[in-house]
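Open question from group meeting: does this chain pack into something compact, or does most of it stay loose? Before anyone orders reagents, we agreed to write out a predicted structure and look at it together. Recording both the input and the output here so the notebook holds the full record.
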Amino acid sequence: MHMPPGRLGPAESLRAPGKANGKVADAKRRGGPGVARPLENAVFAPAFQEQPAADRPPRIASGSSEIVILDGDGQIVVVNQAWRETVAAFGFVLRNAGIGAPYAEVARRFLPDLDRAALELSLRRLLTGSVDDIRHTYAIRSVRGLRWRHVQITPLSVGTAGRFVAIHDDLTEVALTQEALQVTSEQLLTARDEERQRIAIELHDSTSQHLAAISLGLARLRRTSTYSGPGTAIIDEIAKSLSEAVKETRVLSYLMKPRGLAPNGLAASVCQYLEGFAQRTGLEIALEADPAVERAAPPLQHAALRIVQEALLNTNRHAHARRVSVELAVVDAQLIVSVADDGRGIPSEHGEPCLGVGIPGMHARAQQFSGHLAISSDEAGTRVRATLPLA
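Structure tokens returned:
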């Protein structure tokens, strides 16, 4: 905080002069080497001079946020240094940084399209307690390019008079960081899909062929074997395990391969995928699809399909379920994707669910579209519900 010589900062004004700094006071009495005499006379001595409150102009702390205090009529009465610097940086010509001017008039410099009457009405509603605060995010052009900014206005009690505090923040760096994170997330998900597709192809074209060759060799061994009793039982046990390995490989290859949207939309794509899943796993599948889901944008439908695919992959790996139900619906302008099974639930460790890589992937899919994912699990099974805003 900038503090000119001879003026106390807000925190320092609460200290008794004789107790302001024990170490400094001791050093001054001793005349030790830790304190230079000229600095003492120039800074410390004037700093303890008191100024009558009536003569001292109101001040607020400086910082990265631009702060403006308004009176009950919406006039600017106090601003901080950050506000003055921002006004100058944007090239606005305001006498005394706008102090004494109506805030609504000054705000129009930042927001040319601002409805002044609406702002004044909101300020009156703030003063009467009808609303808690006013928030607005806007973009403004500067010599550094487009800047994203946010203002929040809240009531401030000062004695018996009504006051407001308006806090302006530059969110450009936050917005750029979020954009970079979004791009990185999309790249990671794309790379993950590509890797899964490669693994699915390897499972189908290579692993499955090797398992088929082992199955043929085992059949030949059974025909030519002279063993009976325990020998035959061992061959039967190997054949049973091999059959399970072939089945799991086929299911895993099918589930891991990323699916594209069918030409006739999301519901048809999910239905086709569920049919293949049921054929390979023997699970009972139920689908409820609201026709309104087709109004969702293709990228959103693609994310919904991926969430269904990921949820079914987890069901196949961990749930030991007999039945799976999938629901696609639109509720309050949000696409709802729900997958529920009647399995044994998600295993937990120390009371916390053990989450595999699939669940963070579903979270990332939902967060791509400002949505969220909710997962509940108990002895009755696991329920995955993704909520994705349509706009």
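Observations to bring back to the group:
The first helix runs from residue 22 to 30.
The chain has ten helices and twelve strands.
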